[in-house]
Amino acid sequence: MEELKKISFGGKEIFLGYLPNHVELTSRLLYELNLGMGDLSFSHKIGGRWENSYLPIQKVPSVRDIVRPVRDLAVNVYGKKLLALFEAPTGLDHPPFWFNLSETGDSTGVHNHARESVVSGVYYLEAPIDSGDLFFRSDGEEDFSLVPKAGSVVLFPSELRHGVRMNSSSGKRISLAFNLFAFPLPIFREETFGAEVA
User: Fold this and answer.
1) Angle at CA 185, nearest 5°, toward 110 and 198?
2) Distance between CA atoms of residues 131 and 108, nearest Å
3) What pTM was estimated for this model as a whole?
4) Does position 82 have pLDDT exceeding 70, yes or no?
5) Taking a C-beta distance cutoff of 8 angstroms, is the pair 56, 99 a contact?
């Protein structure tokens, strides 16, 4: 990972940087995403917009080329054996990676990903100026904000509360979000899910 930075916030560690081939990866994944726009499925609406947009891994195979090295980095920096899933596990309707397509005026409220996941991440594909900072929240501390930059990746513990400020730009912010899981996962069966462990 290039330009890897560590930030301590709320007793947790946040990491950000760039994959060495992020320009090519970003271009390839945007191309696959644009081809698959007609096949998107959605989980839930917040404020009148679909919060998470999903495509099967077969439509966006470049997701693997982003999540694999980021998962390997997460294993090193967090010191945990982690599982990357590319198919929806039993009991879930969607795989644990998704796209956030944020138009002007969109924002994301404070939440966390701490159901079964251990580490969460976001990879920015398009991030115009003023398109909405990622922020983290912890009791007794002032929010910590990060400006999104195309090609950058942010890793953080899944229980850390976070949200996204309003997109005040005239463009669309596009990101890939994903969760990584502790291994072994209680519902995990090695023969399914397209899982990869490190």
Assistant:
1) 95
2) 12
3) 0.89
4) yes
5) no
